[in-house]
Amino acid sequence: MPAALALPFLFKPVHSTPEDYSGHRYIAGSFSELVDRGLNDPLLTAFEREVLERAKLSGRIEQADYDEAFARFDACMESSGEPVKLVKLSNGLFRIETTPLDDGETVQSAMAVVTGCETGTTLILADLYGIQQGNPDLLADPYAVARNCLATKGLVGPNYTHEDLQKAMNTPSSPWSSLEDRLPFDPYGDEAQACFVGANMALGKA
Q: How far is C-alpha 174 from the geometric centre of its chain's CA atoms?
């Protein structure tokens, strides 16, 4: 299977202030709004609806519910012959480590299994919990989300911008310039990985 797995954003940028909405600065006006969007999904399973209804009352998704969603996803992947390794990071989020493609297997067929297993388990809940843990300001730009987290952890200085991060991560690597060379921190360390996963960005070594 692919070396790294990225789960897509479920929600389009929305904010109650017209000026902010026009610039797509935020994904929602509040976390409760995101929970309501999830509850409006007509394909919710009973498990997902129970978790989201609890979140609507409490204002947050509990770690135990997130863990249960991933336990169900993990069991589905195992039974489908595509086992994954789940690594829990310092902010409570899971990083998914996949296995190499088997002979004759394609990325498309492997991702079809992922799509089937995340539906009804992690598809909605993982995004919401990731936003809760990694993006409390509900920013739309994942590089800004990651940069703020990295700054909070002291991995980048106050003058390091999300544009700096975006440029470093999108510059093609070469034998003379690896990602580690372009960043002022270890991008594969637990603290940095927690920030990237919290920003809904998958970063794995090839």
A: 27
